[in-house]
Amino acid sequence: MKKKIIFLIFAVLIVSFFLFYFWYSIYFPIESGSKREIVFEIKRGQGGKEISKNLKNEGLIRFAIPFRFYIYFKGVARKLQSGFYLLSPSMTIPQMVEKFVKGDVIKEKITILEGWNKREIAKYLEEKGILKAEDFLEKTKLIYWKEKYDFLKEIEAPDLEGFLFPDTYFVEHSTNFAIAKNVELTKEEKIIKKMLDNFDKKLTPQLREEISHQGKTIFQIVTMASMLEKEVKDFEDKKLVSGILWKRLENGIPLQVDATITFLTGKKTTQIPLEDLQIDSPYNTYKYKGLPPGPICNPGFDSILAAIYPEKSDFWYYLSTPDGKTIFSKTLQEHNIAKAKYLK
Hints:
The protein is built from 13 helices and six strands. By secondary structure, the protein is mostly helical. Among the domains are: about 30-105, Dna Ligase, domain 1; about 215-340, no CATH class. β5 (about 315-320) and β6 form a beta hairpin. α2 (about 50-55) packs antiparallel against α3 (about 65-75), α5 runs antiparallel to α6 (about 135-140) and α9 crosses α12 (about 300-310). The longest helix has 26 residues, at about 1-25. It is elongated. The chain starts with a helix and ends with a helix.
C-alpha cells in the first residue's frame, strides 16, 4: 500500500511537472519586456517540426516540443503561412502562432507611378527584391484574370496593361503561401489582385453607367486614358486633349499621338524622327486610324476621368512643350507655328 501511495505521488509529481513545463513554455515569453526584434522566416513547405526547431535556434522559444504541441492542440498546424515575420523574445507562443496563422508578415511599401507600363512595374518590383520580373509579367496575362472581374471580360488584349492601377500598396516582403497544399495565390497574383481590386473600386457604378451611356467600353476608355497619361500632365489639359482625340476618332482623322510611337520605340523624347512615324504597327496612330489595339501604360484616375468626361472645344491640335506645357491650336497653320516656336 505504501509503495502504491509513493508511486501515485511520484506519478502526480511527474504529470504536474510536465503540465507546468508545457504551460510555462507556452504562456511565458523567454525574455519578458525585451524590445529586441528578430526577422524570422518560414519557408514554403516547412512544417511544425522545422518551424519549432528554427524558433528555438533563434532564441524565440525555450523548447520545440511545446510549440508543436500547441499548434496541433489548436488545430492550426496546417494553417501556418510562410513569409518573413517580425518577432520578439518577449512574445508568447500563442502570440507567434496567431501571427503565423493570419499571415501577418512584414509589409513593404511600394508605389506604382502613374504612366508606368507593366514592364516598368515588373522591373521596379524585382529591384525591390519582392519578386522576379518574368514571374510578374507571366501573371499579367489576361487568361489568369478574365473570368474574375467583370470589367476584364470585354478586353481584347492579351494582358492587363492599363488595368494595373497606379497607387501606393503594402505587400509581403516574401511569398505568403499556406503550408497546406491548397495554395490559392502566388505573391505575383496577390500584388496584381490588389491593383485590380483597386481599379474595380475606383471605377464606380456611376462611372461605368456613364461609359455605357456614351456607347463606349471600359477598354476603350482605359486605352484613351493611357494616351492622355503619357501626353499631358495637367488635369484640365487632359480633358481638352481628350475632347480633341475623341473628336478626331468621330471624324475619321488619325489621332497622331506621339506617345504611341515612343511606346513602340522605347525612346523617351518629345522629338519624334520621321522614320519612326513609318513604323508599321497598329499602335502607330500616325499610320493607322482609330484607337491603338490597347493601353500603352497604366493610367491614373485623373486620366481615366478625363477620358470619360472630355471637354469640348474648337481645338483640333495640341503639342507638349519640353517643360510640360500644352499648347492648343484650332487650325493646322496655328499648330505648325506653335511647333516652330516651341519645338525648335
